[in-house]
Protein: Metal dependent phosphohydrolase
Amino acid sequence: MGIHTYFRSLNDLERIIRTPGKFKFEEHSVSAHSWKVVQYAKTLADIEELNGVPINWKKLYEITSSHDYGEIFIGDIKTPVKHSSLELRSMLQQVEEGMIRHFIEENIPEEFQGIFRRQLREGKDGSLEGLILEVADKMDQVYEAFAELQRGNTEKEFVLMYRHALIKIKNIDLHCVRYFLGHILPDIIEESQISPIDIKGITEEALAQQ
Amino acid sequence: MGIHTYFRSLNDLERIIRTPGKFKFEEHSVSAHSWKVVQYAKTLADIEELNGVPINWKKLYEITSSHDYGEIFIGDIKTPVKHSSLELRSMLQQVEEGMIRHFIEENIPEEFQGIFRRQLREGKDGSLEGLILEVADKMDQVYEAFAELQRGNTEKEFVLMYRHALIKIKNIDLHCVRYFLGHILPDIIEESQISPIDIKGITEEALAQQ
Amino acid sequence: MGIHTYFRSLNDLERIIRTPGKFKFEEHSVSAHSWKVVQYAKTLADIEELNGVPINWKKLYEITSSHDYGEIFIGDIKTPVKHSSLELRSMLQQVEEGMIRHFIEENIPEEFQGIFRRQLREGKDGSLEGLILEVADKMDQVYEAFAELQRGNTEKEFVLMYRHALIKIKNIDLHCVRYFLGHILPDIIEESQISPIDIKGITEEALAQQ
Amino acid sequence: MGIHTYFRSLNDLERIIRTPGKFKFEEHSVSAHSWKVVQYAKTLADIEELNGVPINWKKLYEITSSHDYGEIFIGDIKTPVKHSSLELRSMLQQVEEGMIRHFIEENIPEEFQGIFRRQLREGKDGSLEGLILEVADKMDQVYEAFAELQRGNTEKEFVLMYRHALIKIKNIDLHCVRYFLGHILPDIIEESQISPIDIKGITEEALAQQ
Amino acid sequence: MGIHTYFRSLNDLERIIRTPGKFKFEEHSVSAHSWKVVQYAKTLADIEELNGVPINWKKLYEITSSHDYGEIFIGDIKTPVKHSSLELRSMLQQVEEGMIRHFIEENIPEEFQGIFRRQLREGKDGSLEGLILEVADKMDQVYEAFAELQRGNTEKEFVLMYRHALIKIKNIDLHCVRYFLGHILPDIIEESQISPIDIKGITEEALAQQ
Amino acid sequence: MGIHTYFRSLNDLERIIRTPGKFKFEEHSVSAHSWKVVQYAKTLADIEELNGVPINWKKLYEITSSHDYGEIFIGDIKTPVKHSSLELRSMLQQVEEGMIRHFIEENIPEEFQGIFRRQLREGKDGSLEGLILEVADKMDQVYEAFAELQRGNTEKEFVLMYRHALIKIKNIDLHCVRYFLGHILPDIIEESQISPIDIKGITEEALAQQ
Structure:
């Protein structure tokens, strides 16, 4: 078949759960993660533009929306596995690329093959758009880990995820990273220090209303 | 707070389920739907470009990725309700717009308010990008309804959803619609006619392998 | 078809989730909410009877058990939307009533149409039974919000839900409301102040058992 | 504590699933089942009244809404176990009644204890209201089993559940049973014979629309 | 049919949830519980062997892996019900055994019936292997209850479950129990006293990284 | 910490779902799969013993119960990835073994390290017990795929899974494999050909009962 095979396959990413077995409060599908990355990246690019940096929106659109499509073929391989050796990492990447190439050849009509090859390649190159994707992807790890830690999940894996993502982000030299560090991260910290809701107080205040 | 409030709110759309109570095989979150619309729209726009039509990728990015963000404020109002009278529909749209405006004023720093107002407005205007969004949005209804009907869900609501979405799509005059009708829809139909798997046959074939 | 269509439709309310995207600990279906309202209302009416007030049990039965049936037709519209303007609210109510009327005409045999029209109308009129329904409905919001807040969900929406429901309840002049404020609410508050379980203490006590 | 303990406990029945491990398409909580029984019983009683039979609505309200509350204490004991010997059945019933008695004594204020004892006793006595409860309870087994069988679940347990429930219902001599057998059951059968949706046909019809 | 009926039935235990309605953070299927008991028992037996006590591994394998298979027939009967009287308990056990006997006679080929009768009998006899099963089964109650209590579930049922399981374990005179009390339980207690994660601190440390 | 860290980690395998995104009717956790493999292997070994072949039950217990524990460290890597090249496969195995070694060194007290190293190594060696594990593991793929295909899931991945598992099994020369092919597989095939339930027929038969 043709592009239908590709469109239909998108549905499967809603059933692939990120870091299975660890999230105790809210689980996240690869689809929902992908959409949030698209959204963060849009605002990050807006910040760059506000600072006078031109954005290639077509490229940014392509690489952010497809950046985890390859998980359909290779499944959820844990980050420590991927990073355990440079050799293994590059071999896994070759396998993923081979499977994507094979999928395109088998299913995508010839006139679209070039487009799909470009869209489904690894997007995290050194370009501005690739860096924004990197920041947006890590930002979702920050948000995912934060939501668990804040609610009392003491799983060490989320401390590591949060910490590594932050270190990765802060070392990227972009206007939007500076904005994140200066204006967004402080709000995250502030939220982490909210006291539990005082139910007794709210009740008394409500009963005192006229 | 600031943009953090907006980023954190994205998470809630993963817990809002489309057409609750009707999907019997696979449910879909608003996040996953939004991501699929982003993906369909990208390929539809590629088809337009292959036919020589220029695309405003920044605009397409903005309107597809945010097109259902407003559901955070107004919830899941059923299509027949929205369409029961023009007056009600426009009133609901005004309420949604008012809530989005209020959210932006309360949370988004002034220098970004213009950007957010543009991104979170209704994207289905008469422009090429607006029409592509309309097609992509309906295409997901086609795929969602198809997946239920094909597996034996006889719920009338999905027949209507599938049928209305198809009628809406076919009346939009675009290259990508012609491609969809000529090359993608036939594959959907063909898939609807696949016979059940012959388990006995596969077993015998497997046992006969050397 | 006939009453079968109505009976079968009841099942769909188990898949409609209240306030989707907000409950982080336990979600609630419209069916389960409806059953709890039926149960609260029964005890509230018992309190009225103990105080010498006569109850129309048939009416109370009808209006409590069916009070959210209309959500099958209109979906889950958020409270702030419904209340954003009197005009919108009355228009939404007209649409819901029109859809219920249409459903009854299409599906319910003529000899039952009067009964269904009475049962599926809005039950929150100014009568004693209508007021008890109002209290019971708000009481479930108190319990739903309380269960989230107590476990550490700091979502502002639950503070508002809890507070508004309490204010609504306390302004209704009934024996059962006075009982709720004087005897039930204090137990809720007391429970909100229970300290976390002292696992070390329990362990030591258990090990010291003969 | 007092009635608060009872109100809060209602929530637990939303997490107790009926016949766990068997439903493959849609699971049902005890809460949702209880609500559907309340709804069926209301219409069954309406049919009796239309035939000139007087109903004790207060009693019907009490016994239908609370009929499975005892599952909080004893859990989900499979029907074949309960019925394996008269002696075991009566012993289990004594245990359940003992636990309910104990709960009432521990938690319910003295002035309400009589009411709660009456409401939480076994409602399926030989009275008209008790018989209507019996019919409504079995009717939900018919609907639950039907929904699984119709979608292709070939589990023998549902054939037995459907068949036993029907036999139980048909042997109860009430106007509403005659109505069920004559007007509702035929619609169930008719629905069981609906052919799968013809997706190709719908597509062609939709594309032919102007 | 034959052994296929038994193999296929194993699947149903993945849909039977333990203590339904009580776990608020993570639910557990009977399958997953059974597997954890198999795993604990293996290590407990290793500890016995390290102390020079010989283990009948075949027997231990048989009784741990099948110890809750009977729940397929009788469902989840709450512990307080089972223990409410010795008479009821023995009657329930007779019913369960009768159902297992019947299942074996109906489905298991004659040459395997002896094996299945031995494997599916109650394994908690006074033998070393039976005692290890008892410890392992209670140990999972300790872990299940601990995980809820530690996260803030204040449900009394888990305090009781944790406490009773501990008392049961400590009264069994085995090397592995002494190891559990001396080396594993202290780690559980220590973990219960971990403070919430200091998100602000981690953030500052991460940002200070080079 | 010590063995507590290992015991507590077992819980995570209940949240890791096998082949995520593909099962449309019933999902399976790694825990439930592991337990079913333990159960199949027990009966397969019983068949060997009935044929006079001696079994090392301790070894069989160890390798079947722990055979997928490593997924805690490496996640769910799809079979085609693992098998795409011998080099990648062996590298992934080295990484998994390294992580297990590291876990043991960090957490397991020295006197148990040898035992854990033996138990958590790859169990599918050429020994009788290793072959039984291989058969039991593939048998669960047969059952998992069969349950989906029989209910109408036409996903090609399950046809491949079913077929490859069968071919793998039939090429292992064991008494229990011959028993499976001769007595269990025919029952699976027979079940695949059961017609849908005739609801009308059952209804008529039930109504005709006295």
About this structure: The mean pLDDT of chain A is 90. Chain A touches chain E at residues 24, 146, 149-150, 152-154, 158-159, 162-163, 166-167, 170, 181, 185, 188-189, 192-193 (CB under 8 Å).
